[in-house]
Amino acid sequence: MPDIEKIEPIETYDAQKITVLKGLEAVRKRPAMYIGDVSARGLHHLVYEVVDNAVDEAMAGFCTEIEVNLHPDDSAEVWDNGRGIPIDKHKTEKVSALQVVMTMLHAGGKFDKQSYKVSGGLHGVGVSVVNALSLWCWAEVCREEKLYRQSYQCGHADGPVQETGKCRQRGTRVRFFPDPEIFKETRFSFDTVSNRLRELAFLNSGLKITARDLRAEEAREREFQYKGGLSEFVAYLDETRIALHQSPIIITGEKEGVVVDIAMEYNDSYQENIFTYVNNIYTLEGGTHLSGFKAALTRTLNYWALKNNIFKTDKFTLSGEDTREGLTAVLSIKVPEPQFEGQTKTRLGNSEVKGIVESIVNDGLTEYLEEHPGYARRILDKCTSSARAREAARKAKDLVRRKGALESGSLPGKLADCSINDPEHCELFIVEGDSAGGSAKQGRDRRFQAILPLRGKILNVEKARPDKILSNEEIRTLIQAIGTGIGGDEPLEGSDGEADPTAGENGNFNLTKLRYGKIIIMTDADVDGAHIRTLLLTFFFRHMKQLVETGHIFIAQPPLYRITKSKSDHYAYDEKEMNEVLKRIGGMQGAHMQRYKGLGEMNPDQLWTTTMDPERRTVLRVELEDAATADKMFETLMGDHVDKRRAFIEENARYVRNLDI
């Protein structure tokens, strides 16, 4: 028992200590709870929230055009020609409905299921959160040829809604400027915004979306409108691949109020690319709709193949991986009452959706195969070829599976491992060559930092099948060191058919076996280093995608310049920082400058100080903001089509900095 007399008095904890945040105060206090974070991703989420409201109007049949403008003052503006937010007085709040929508959480027309049968903004927090996180914002509404306007500061209305004039075209216009006190960066990326708008135009056939960047001397404008919808989406994704059939397979249907739209195409690649959406929301982690699609695809192709004697033996069957090799598919469903896992909405949980999607895909795909027997046989030939390669890959995979996950714990000889084994605190540096590897091994903190030197450039996995990939020594070493294995996430036997995202079948990818919480690519700051980095990123994106999705992949930022003056070293990571250093130390007089061409030029202390010390280094986390755009980019840069790659280089060459010649 402790000595009661020596216990310090506890500060009074009573009802007065309970804080109640009213209105939008909670949003400004904890913005990450509502938009994910306050970095570039959260910043762009503000635009998406306003655009999603406009798209909901389009899904309801009242909007045909949306415009997004990025202004020179770094504000963003979204306009749509929908019905316009109501401006009459709300019966309980006693203020204009516009003010209610713009300043109150969980307020909107999406809860009664009459104004909107389906919508993306399920929580009713979208535009009010945007308003709360903006230094200033205003909204204009055109209804019945009258124009109304209300302005706000940090989420609070400056005054009541005012009628400001006449107008001809109905709709809503919202313009806002993100609060610099909340966001680290307030400048929107036109390319990032455009990619999301293109995606929405594909998902909403016929909807016209225009993006404008008004910040430069020459304004940029992109217009997106696709009458073919998902079919054009798949054609866009497969632009650099060769299709096995004349046009994408289209499957549509509706059951129990759930609308299912699918476009799919088999191509000459070895990659599986399936993108799923619910009410226009990209479901990164899939869910029951994806499970239904995969189950129906495998079952239908196997049934048709057996029925038409494609297989030489009745005992042969295709696995799910076999039926999805070289498949690009977009699955978009509309659900009146979707059940997502959390505000991030990355995984659908409605159990009834699996059976609905499975039934519609089974009927639609069977009909296509019966009507196109030539294409059907070509698709089945692709799948059976995949099955043969899968068997070869399975044998190779057995050789590289980390024994520690199954048996005794053998690791590659070239790996200099760390002493602790808690993945949350461990880091793996992947470096090029023995020279850089030697400096990194001497300069590291051996307690939590491991070093894996690679010899030369690894195989370009974009052009190779799994069995060839697993025969590459450098890739086998990499897989063995990381510990997760690679491959798909087929359902375990006896499960409900839904794949566990952290554990695959027969030694496939298993996130729980990850040995290092941070995997840091540390290559030279030259062309070869950039190429090696791209090859590694291609490998991670194609075969360990979950590591990217869960934020485990990083890129080290070694300095380009070392400036020595008066026995003091100063490091600069680009030319701009170099000029700032020179200005700070009084110029080059009496100074010596070194431009690093490789990590091997640094001694261990310099490498630790500039690139490896967690207290002083800069590392970039690799994030997957737009999976469809990332897939197309990797295929363009690393695939077989030289013309597409040349066009990309010619278009973007003017943006290159620090090119090593």
Give the CATH class of the largest domain.
Answer: Alpha Beta
State the CATH superfamily name of the largest domain: Histidine kinase-like ATPase, C-terminal domain
CATH topology of the largest domain: Heat Shock Protein 90
Q: What is the share of helical residues? A: 25-40%
Q: On the 0-100 scale, what is the average pLDDT?
A: 83
Q: Give a short account of the largest sheet.
A: 9 strands, mixed
Q: Which word captures the global form?
A: flat
Number of domains: 3
**Percent range for β-strand residues:** 15-25%
Poorly predicted runs of 5 or more residues: 1-10, 13-21, 402-409, 489-507
Main structural class:
alpha+beta
User: What Rg, in angstroms, do the CA atoms define?
Assistant: 28 Å
The CATH architecture of the largest domain is 2-Layer Sandwich
Protein described:
The protein has 21 helices and 22 strands. It is an alpha+beta fold. The protein has three domains: 25-224, Heat Shock Protein 90, CATH 3.30.565.10; 230-397, 2-Layer Sandwich (Ribosomal Protein S5, domain 2), CATH 3.30.230.10; 402-558 and 622-634, 3-Layer(aba) Sandwich (Rossmann fold), CATH 3.40.50. Strands 1, 2, 3, 4, 5, 6, 7, 8 and 9 form a nine-stranded mixed β-sheet that branches. A five-stranded mixed β-sheet has the order 10-11-14-12-13. A hairpin with a 2-residue loop joins strand 12 (273-278) and strand 13. Helix 3 (40-59) runs parallel beside helix 6 (190-203) and helix 13 crosses helix 19. The termini are far apart. Mean pLDDT is 83; it is low at 1-10, 13-21, 402-409 and 489-507.
